[in-house]
Here is the input.
Amino acid sequence: MQEQRLSRFFFPRRIMKLKYKFILIIGLVLTVSYGLILLYMTGLQNDLVIGQAKHQARMLHRQLILTREWVSDHHGLFVVKTDNVIENPYLDQPNLHTETGVTLVKRNPAMVTRELSEYAMKAGYGWFRVTSLKPVNPLNKPDDFERSSLELFEKQDLQEYIEIRTDNAEKNLRYIAPLLVKPSCLECHAKHGYKVGDIRGALSISIPIDWADRIIRKNNGTILLFGLISVLTVTVLLYVLFNILVSSRLSGLEQIMDNYPDSPDPNLPLPQGDDEIGRLSSRFAALCERLERSRQKLDLAHEKAFYNEKMAALGQITAGISHEINNPLGGMLNCVKNMQDEPENHQLHARYLPLLDKGLRRIENIMQQMLNFGRNAPLLPRKVNIDHEIRECISLLQYRMKNIELILDLGVTESHCIDTEAIKQIVVNIGLNAIQAMPDGGTLTIISSTVTDPENHLCIIIKDSGPGIPEEIIEHIYDPFFTTKEVGQGTGLGLAVTYALVQKMGGRISATSKPGQGSIFTVLLPIIEHCQGLTDEPASHPRQKG
Here is the structure.
């Protein structure tokens, strides 16, 4: 279920070509990959920058500690007093006067640290200072970060504390490390109650890292630009390669498959190659050959079944019309015998000759109808009078219609293009079934008309007053070899052949029946306007086949 949902999300039910699906998936994979790379590189750059800033802070801290130790070991640093040199009011001996009259100002480690920080701040390298929870100089009063760090140093044995903070819209790395009292520090701080090893305060260092964010953004932009160029380049290459190697070949194969077997285009060769598409093409060609052989066998079987059923129906009709031939034949033989016995009786000859001619023509007409129906001719549309063809079929069936009332309601007055042999076979098969369903007599009704539903169709309705078709078998009446007749009474192919003929002509056939109320077969055949060069066939003269 989850796979189906994902499939609907990525590939809606609208038709999407395979190459677009392929390119979309590759594009998504590349985009996600570059996104992950960008995310990883951003974190990596940030870690590198922060690591570099931490290393810089530790180096600066170490340099400042060494500087402070040097100043402390030398009991301070003395500089010549000028207008820009301020005395430290918190020292016991802030000045020193030389014999030459030069005044020197003493700089203790804290003062040196503060003045170096001012120089570093002017150069944009950050700032640093000494701070304490108990500052002697109010300028060394700790801020929030420094206070919390000093309190943390007193509670835990930490060597340093680092935090990234944004103060006044500036991003800084804050570094702080405790300052321990050493023997050289007691000169100034012993009076404050400190001893060696105590935490006197801390050295606080702040390094600006806004530049790092700018560099990271610039690097990310470069990565994003090259990523987009790579995605577009790969997409274009994939589109071209997929179109050449896959899409165009599949389109050609699809066109050939669409045209097969109605109108194959010889100018569209099957894609060749040793890859999957080439093998698929060879498999399709082999399949087409097998289908063609199967179609030929199936057509041959249909043609044979059609002809066999026609012969079976003709055999059943022949049994009914045999006495129709025997009666005039017997009379004709009697006439010939009398004429032989009296060769000089011209009056007898004149009376018998018209009778002989009438009988011979009647036999000729019956035999011609049987030949027309029994001939194995291909199904070709001809423009004929439909009602005339139905009447010709009735003339074949009427010899079996003993005690059956025939009702004809034929309303197709115009000639139409239709397969003559097929319409005859359809009417004879359904009519013969109806006659066989009424062995004790009944009513056979045949109706013809043209209907519009919404296209023009020829409608033929054949209904009988027999016992009807049971509901449980009405769905199987078109199955080949399905019959309810006794052995020797039917082949079970009549309605199957009829159904196949109707389907072949593009029509529809349906059957309705109620027990005890007979059956109704309705045939709808499309009306063909033009017979493509075939001439009209006169309705008054049945087609003669030699």
Remarks:
- Residues 5-14, 533-546 have pLDDT under 50 and may be disordered.
- The two ends are 68 Å apart (CA to CA).
